[in-house]
Recover the amino acids of this structure.
């Protein structure tokens, strides 16, 4: 719901979560799938770098409502 | 008649959050809340309990569903009962997905959870019996769940959601109303004036158009926001671990990283061991600072916004979002990296 309200205010917000189905249902628009509930940005710095880069790319992209991006291994 | 009952690892007695990765397991007979449920069933016996860890289901949904459906096919029950999951999002989601899959395969299925549980929207053709938001509602939920499960097992045609005590599924069935639309509308208006708001038509969650992307991230002010319950060590403002009453703003003070021992997560919806070893796993401040130095992002907003996103009613979470969005806008933030679990 935070993602949705921040985007309603006109600020692009990317939501990194391991539960994209729930994020889609509540109406978040920019969603990146994280690897796990207990560590959505992965375990090490390399994971983190890859996931954050993907999220930033999404902030720079025009998206349809409730778009989910995967992160490449 | 035979019932199969689905529970998560906690209610099945297999363990708490530490066991949330438990794969699907079959237990004989009724277990945990299944014993109370058994007493409410009429002519129906719980022959087996299927259990699965909430994290396992969420992270390996296809495998989990396949395994559970195979067990279900073998047991060939007259009804599947899932939960109650109350306000637990992951548990409710698992209950609803399994119930929906069972219903699709011709097994009558009913799940129980709070009406704002995200699982409700995933139940498809399965029935959902509403419950209180937490386990204190068990005693109230079981008789209603048992009654609906018994009716489903018997093959009796169910009446409307209101009559039978399940949440409307969004299906419309034609019937001849005793009163005209005009009379019913006036009746609803009078009821509303008396403080009882009802509807014949279920609304959907609203949608927001995605705002245009950031045009120049290298000069943009980027804020970090989280629903993962990250707070300074010791939780000085007593952020709730579930059903948060508010959100907090913490000054990052130029810190390069969310260091273990200085920050922790108090989220009550998952095992925070890994997160507390390195809170950057929930809010990647170290990585974002690196990208700030490298010029990939302009500046990191020196305030971290945090709350816990589990069990928060939609209307409350919406208010948190509006309040945080207002502050971000006033601060000139141009992009937000939000983390949930």
């Amino acid at each position: 719901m935070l993602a949705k309200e921040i985007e309603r205010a006109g600020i692009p917000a990317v939501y990194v979560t391991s539960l994209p189905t729930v994020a889609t249902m509540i109406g978040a628009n920019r969603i990146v799938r994280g690897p796990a509930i207990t560590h959505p940005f992965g375990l090490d710095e390399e994971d983190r770098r890859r996931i954050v880069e993907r999220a930033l790319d999404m902030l720079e992209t025009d998206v349809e409502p409730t778009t989910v991006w995967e992160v490449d291994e | 008649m035979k019932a199969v009952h689905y529970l998560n690892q906690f209610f099945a007695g297999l363990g708490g959050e530490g066991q949330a990765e438990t794969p699907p397991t079959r237990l004989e007979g009724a277990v945990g809340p299944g014993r109370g449920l058994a007493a409410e069933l009429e002519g129906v016996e719980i022959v087996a309990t299927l259990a699965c860890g909430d994290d396992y289901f969420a992270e390996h949904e296809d495998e989990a569903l396949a395994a559970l459906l195979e067990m279900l096919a073998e047991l060939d029950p007259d009804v599947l009962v899932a939960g109650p999951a109350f306000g637990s999002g992951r548990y409710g989601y698992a209950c609803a997905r399994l119930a929906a899959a069972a219903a699709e395969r011709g097994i009558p299925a009913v799940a129980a959870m709070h009406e704002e549980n995200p699982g409700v929207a995933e139940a498809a053709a399965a029935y959902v019996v509403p419950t209180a938001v937490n386990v204190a509602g068990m005693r109230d939920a079981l008789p209603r769940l048992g009654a609906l499960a018994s009716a489903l097992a018997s093959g009796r045609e169910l009446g409307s959601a209101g009559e039978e005590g399940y949440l409307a599924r969004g299906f419309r069935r034609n019937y001849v109303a005793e009163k005209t639309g005009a009379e019913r509308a006036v009746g609803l208006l009078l009821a509303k004036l008396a403080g009882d708001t009802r509807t014949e038509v279920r609304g959907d969650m609203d949608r927001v158009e995605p705002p245009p992307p950031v045009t120049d991230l290298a000069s943009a002010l980027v804020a970090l926001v989280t629903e993962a319950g990250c707070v300074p060590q010791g939780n000085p403002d007593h952020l709730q671990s579930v059903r948060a009453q508010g959100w907090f703003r913490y000054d990052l003070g130029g810190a390069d990283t969310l260091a273990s021992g200085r920050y922790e997560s108090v989220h009550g919806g998952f095992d925070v061991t890994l997160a507390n070893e390195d809170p950057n796993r929930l809010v990647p401040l170290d990585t974002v600072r690196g990208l700030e130095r490298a010029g990939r992002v302009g500046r990191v907003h020196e305030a971290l916004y945090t709350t816990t996103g589990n069990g928060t009613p939609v209307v409350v979470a919406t208010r948190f979002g509006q309040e945080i969005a207002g502050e971000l806008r006033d601060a000139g933030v141009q992009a937000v990296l939000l983390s949930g679990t």
The beta strands of chain A are 13-17, 30-33, 67-69. Chain A has one domain: 2-69. The CA atoms of residues 58 and 73 of chain A lie 17 Å apart. Chain A touches chain B through 52 residues (CB under 8 Å).
